[in-house]
Design brief:
This protein is α/β, with parallel strands linked by helices. It is built from 9 helices and 9 strands. Strands 3-4-5-7-6 form a 5-stranded mixed beta sheet. A two-stranded antiparallel sheet has the order 1-2.
């Protein structure tokens, strides 16, 4: 099957968003493009590199999991000088204060949560090669970020406390950014939006108007998170954790419901409208 046909089939039937077949298609396509350009290191702002099909750790980096054909994901602590311009441009602050062992422990705990739904775990392992930790001054607010300029990498904060709910919060950040990576790779195959028209639409997550692309990405990633939390509710969690899952499910459902007519947005291509309509209504 061609990659175009695979993506079209996914847009027509996108649930579960964390399926693995199209994920592998678009990731392999991206790697192929990079290699054709002679780029063995796709991350302009890191020292990461790929040799054949195996990720090789260089410098201060720790392998944390294997999944998705056994490929590892690395916790990265790149050179501050090397990342300085990127972090400044995007308003990010790397966390060089927390011990790597503590960062590693928190990431492993979050990945254990994600692994409770095997397809989710596999999808993330295919999409995410490197994780960098952000500094967060407010313990109640989670930060996460990804950028096409740093392929296959995500930037997240980790909670200060050690609890199941904290593990869920970090797991949500990882899934959130992985889904951004996936949709960006899909957009590289099939345009989902017209070139930025300057039009802005209400985003229930930002409580402000954003571009159609920002709203579509929000819908995509939070639909994935919502479905993931629904799966987790069947696990043997304590009542306070189940209450947290129920709260997040209710909150995200309410936010997504405010986009019930977004598939009519004139900034969406036909393919973008198809995807949006097939993410709604919630069920």
């Amino acid at each position: 099957m061609s990659i175009d046909k695979a993506v079209q089939d996914f847009l027509a039937q996108p649930i579960p968003l964390w399926e693995n077949a199209v994920t592998e298609y678009v990731v392999n396509h991206a790697w192929h493009k990079l290699k054709k350009q002679g780029i063995s290191n796709p991350n302009e702002y890191t020292t990461a590199r790929i040799i054949t099909n195996s990720a090789i750790a260089i410098g201060n980096r720790v392998e944390i999991i294997k999944g998705g054909k056994g490929l590892p994901i690395y916790l990265e602590a790149p050179s501050a000088d090397h990342l300085n311009s990127f972090y400044q441009e995007h308003g990010l602050v790397p966390d060089y204060e927390t011990e790597v062992s503590k960062q590693l422990s928190k990431l492993k705990a979050a990945i254990d949560v994600l692994a409770q739904v095997q397809l989710v775990f596999n999808c993330i392992a295919i999409l995410v090669r490197y994780i960098q930790i952000l500094k967060q001054d407010d313990a109640e607010i989670d930060l996460s970020y990804s950028s096409p300029k740093v392929p296959f990498s995500i930037f997240i904060s980790v909670c200060e406390d050690d609890s199941t709910i904290s593990n869920l919060r970090v797991a949500e950040s990882i899934l959130h950014e992985a889904m951004h990576l996936k949709l960006t790779l899909i957009e590289d195959i099939t345009p989902l939006l017209l070139p930025d028209t300057g039009n802005r639409y209400f985003s229930p997550w930002r409580d402000e108007k954003r571009s159609a692309r920002g709203v579509l990405h929000g819908l995509f990633v939070f639909k994935a998170i919502l479905d993931f939390y629904k799966k987790l509710k069947g696990q043997a969690y304590s009542q306070n954790v189940l209450d947290y899952l129920g709260h997040r499910e209710s909150q995200i459902t309410n936010e997504i419901s405010q986009l019930s007519n977004f598939y009519l947005c004139l900034d969406l291509t036909e393919e973008g409208a198809t995807l949006t309509k097939n993410l709604l209504p919630l069920n």
